[in-house]
Amino acid sequence: MLSWYREAVFESNPGSTFVLEVDSSSNRFQRLFLAYAACVEGFELCLPVLYVDETFGKSIYKGQILCATGMNGNQSFFPLAMCVCDSETDANWTFFFEHLKSLLEPQGRVITFISDRGVGLLSAFDKVFPGNPHLFCYKHLVFNLMSKYKDEGNSVVKEDVKRKFFELAYSCTDKEYRFHLRELREVGGFDIINTFLSDMPLENWCRAFFPGSRYGIMANSITESFNYWISVEREMPVYTMLDQTRIKMMQQMGERRDEAELWTTELTPVMEGRLKDGMEQAHNFSVHYSHTNVYEVRSKYSYEVDLGTLSCSCKKWQINCFPCCHGLAAIQSASLDVYAFIDEYFRVDHYKKCYDFPIRPISNVDILPPLTKRPRRRPRLKMFKSRGESEKNLIHCGHCGKMGQHNKKTCTVPI
Q1: What is the C-alpha to C-alpha distance for residues 74 and 352, in angstroms, rounded to an integer?
Q2: Is the dihedral of CA 294, 298, 302, 303 positive or negative?
Q3: What is the DSSP-derived secondary structure letter of residue 306?
Q4: What's the pLDDT at 180?
Q5: To which H or E segment does residue 316 belong?
Q6: Do the Cβ atoms of 253 and 358 come closer than 8 Å?
Q7: 297 has which bridge partners?
Q8: Which of 5, 65, 357 is nearest to 228 (CA)?
Q9: Which residues contact 249 (CB under 8 A, 6 or more apart)?
Q10: Residue 104 backbone dihedrals phi, psi, to 5 degrees
Q11: Which one-letter DSSP state was computed for residue 386?
């Protein structure tokens, strides 16, 4: 069935990638990789970030589902590719990443990956994507850190450690990082904290040290949303799961495309709301011109904004890839068009292009059933017997003594 489905995908959705591997000795399914052409084309117009995660199949066949999910300009998930395999191993992650790389390389973009550091994922990622930025999910790091305090401290200590680690991970500058690290060590214990952080490069988990474009991302929540979205399909056998997920994705892409046609703003609704909030904060600042494109923005503290490099000394513009409130204050002071300073991925026209490539239906019907008409009136529950079908009761003849369809008067047997 999977072999037929692969050919059906190629025929109905040209340009798609469907790799099916079978154990040659037993002829049993081993693993597969699937990415529809529409998803690959659409992802090129999504943010250059990719969430990779695994989830488990819930059917009687179990297994693991490896997913690569993007994010569109309205901060919603955009499915790119999936792999179905027997377990989460280095070999299966390598298989997944190698085929994923073949899709991403032609796009020519530097993709930032976000993951939960699952089993086999890190080693496979370093082999296939050695130069790509890689973020570790903050929520999973918190969970791992809390596991260090199972036998130590009370709930108050754990909550303090959790709060201090949040401040540390969300630090925007080196100065903030050093300050919050000192506080975390005091609350959580020097040895425990140092051991926990020793094998994690700073750029993988702390905002202040990430060198690329992270679009404010700290957690792997997008893939969790996608995994929940297909929770019912995960209970199905592989073939049914793939087909029902395709239908779900096809329908969602069509609905989002139609919905975007009704939007009248320059930015997508979520980002337009974020811009509005930032503009309201910007009214409370005083702005002072320094030199070309450079401004000093003052509130409780003073910040340097450079409109030429799209940066602010608070670092939030660079971290979120979206103007911070200080940047918006400087833009307003310079009487410039604020939309000219916002990433194109957040624009409605760019969002619409993500869904210009529909997933095509798959047809497996060659001969259509005949058209029928429902008869008038209520259908009969009991069938009328035709001539010759009616059954007659046998009677006893008082003359010949036999059972038949005659009686004493009509009996023809001689006396």
Answers
A1: 11
A2: negative
A3: E
A4: 96
A5: helix 316-320
A6: yes
A7: 287, 303
A8: 65
A9: 36, 39, 79, 359
A10: -85, -35
A11: P
**Would the pTM count as exceeding 0.85?**
no
Instruction: Determine the Cα–Cα distance for residues 364 and 7; give it in Å rounded to an integer.
Output: 11
pLDDT in tens, 176-222: 999 999 999 999 999 999 999 998 999 999 999 998 889 999 998 89
**Helices assigned H by DSSP within 53-197:** 90-104, 121-128, 138-146, 155-169, 174-188, 190-197
Do 83 and 360 meet the contact criterion of CB atoms below 8 Å apart? no
Q: Which residues, in sequence order, are CB contacts of 141 under 8 Å at separation 6+? A: 165, 169, 200, 205
For residue 387, pLDDT over 50 is answered with no
Q: What angle do CA 204, 275, 329 make, to 5 degrees?
A: 95
Beta bridge partners of 65: 55, 84
Nearest-angstrom CA–CA distance, 130 and 242: 30
Q: Which helix (H) or strand (E) holds 259?
A: helix 238-260
Q: What is the pLDDT of residues 250-262, one digit of tens each?
A: 999 999 999 999 9
Q: Give me the pLDDT at residue 388, please.
A: 46
- What is each CA distance from 336 to 53, 123, 318, 327, 393, in whole angstroms? 41, 47, 20, 11, 102
Q: Tokens for 214, please give them.
A: 């992270």
Calpha distance 73→57 (Å, rounded): 30
CA–CA distances in Å: residue 151 to residues 147, 155, 157, 406 = 9, 11, 12, 99
Please choose, from the candidates 336, 276, 335, 287, the residue with its C-alpha nearest in 3D space to the C-alpha of residue 312: 287
Burial class (CB in 10 A: 0-12, 13-18, 19+), 223: buried
What are the angstrom distances between the C-alpha of 357 and each of 61, 74, 255, 273?
33, 18, 13, 27
CA distance 72 to 352: 10
Q: Chain-centre distance of CA 249, in angstroms?
A: 10
